[in-house]
Protein: DNA oxidative demethylase AlkB
Organism: Chromobacterium haemolyticum
Amino acid sequence: MADLFAPEEGGWLERLSPGAALLHRRVCEIDAALLAEVEAVLRQAPPRGMQTPGGRAMSVATTSCGAYGWVSDARGYRYAERDPGSGQPWPAMPALSRALAEEAAAEAGFPGFAPDACLINCYAPGAKMSLHQDKDERDFGAPIVSVSLGLPAIFLFGGLSRAERAGRIELRHGDVLVWGGADRMRFHGVLPVADGMHPLLGRRRINLTFRKAR
Ligand code: MD6
Ligand code: FE
């Protein structure tokens, strides 16, 4: 039941539920420019493995840009104004990335989204993200905007309780997934990324999630 964008926009919007939409191939036409912005952030604030509060190593390598970055260690999950790796503020959120996130949110039904944090997750083959809710943000009124680049992944999109069976959504290079409103607290995760070779990113998946942290 996909609503169609104008074809020249290079994508189509699939409404998944009242608060969630998948914007297929939304960033394919600007992928190289977006990746250049991301690579500049990765040089300034290198991604690193984080520890869960329970002491387990996460398989993704994570960094951030924007006013706040998401960090996890023995003290818990939280947003921090500085990169604990360098002690410096996080790199600024690049202009194209920010504009893209705002536009995608509006297209999905969330006008006025003003992200102040962008997490960048780097997945090597085999890396995954366990089922969780995003609840470290101060205000759940803002949506989450997730941009996928590189190798495809299976995204688990569950319900509002952990017990609810999660649906599986393939996220491919260029896809943008937006969830908010009644769907904001849905459990979600990523299955282990299968090995492969992407023409632009090589053996990697990079996921950007834009949030309003404060
Ligand atoms: C992803 N990441 O990397 C999805 N949520 O595709 C997340 O859902 C996420 O990386 C909360 C905190 C950190 C994350
Ligand atoms: Fe999440």
Helices lie at 31-44, 95-107.
